């Protein structure tokens, strides 16, 4: 009887210890969830929002998740979260080991993270797009919208041995976007905006997807939506105030294109912002230092004229224009042409090189480039044969875009009957007024003289 009672007491005591251990283990897992859960993990407990990797407090998260892995070694979620904690600490070797372990346990987020390590050659892994592709396919087939988005990018760019296939990329972006994934919504919006991926060009759809992403706080979505408000696209009314608000939200998250855009609003005093060249220059420099071409170009123009508290410094302007031009910025390509034409910014005077940059910008439809190319045809510069007909054609292309110097030059051609154009004082007067209304002093003086000769 005593033995039976002892056995019952032992069982009761054991159960109490087991229950206490189970509660403690659950507490360890919960601590890891709070410290390092992914916002994109459907398996995370209710009430846990998740934390982006760059917001994880790495030392406490590593400690919490190490305890959780010891307490629940078969829980693939906490193993994956330990990998995220190491990733936040930039301990790529340790992160890779945890992601690999969680992937072998069937965790699709870990597979997606591991694919990223193969893409970038992190954690001691070689750069291997083929292995990254295998992991992304595995995760995408399991329904991971992050993997679907990344796999779409592989199809878009033709990576991992795939042929470029924007239609398949668009399909995958839509799968992920319709599950609410902001990055996919941005990519899909971009495809609609440009009519790519087998999708029609549709600004309404682009604006809709940008807004879905922006409403989640996505900086790219905020910046793209701001551009639509600025230009009045996608069924949106022009609204500089809303554009400025969205640019600021994105800029405050460190997005370089938004910082450059916000700087331009300060430069111009748009969207309810006071004109502030100093703040504009600071934003341009922040964007330029991150390699943003628009920021580099705008900062270069400030150095040219010594605005925003910056010294007038052609050498720095030339350097920045070169950086922006090499990334395809049209304004800087045209500006660099001017630097070579005039031998500015420690660049040699070189009409051939000036012509190359003017033509680069002109061939992509940039009005100033078209005008400057027209001037080279007019003067027979840079090795070109003098050709006023071609000059007139180039001036007209730029004038039709509202470029005042081209409107003035084309007006003079009509006034004088040059470049194969019939003499036409009325057309000359029309063009001169367009340029004069933009503040062009030469056009204003010429218009005054022409009006004296025109019949009343």
From TrEMBL:
Pfam families: Sel1 (PF08238). InterPro entries: ISR_Activator, Sel1-like, TPR-like_helical_dom_sf. Keywords: Signal. Residues 1-20 form the signal peptide. It comes from the Bacteria. This is TPR repeat. It comes from Bradyrhizobium lablabi.
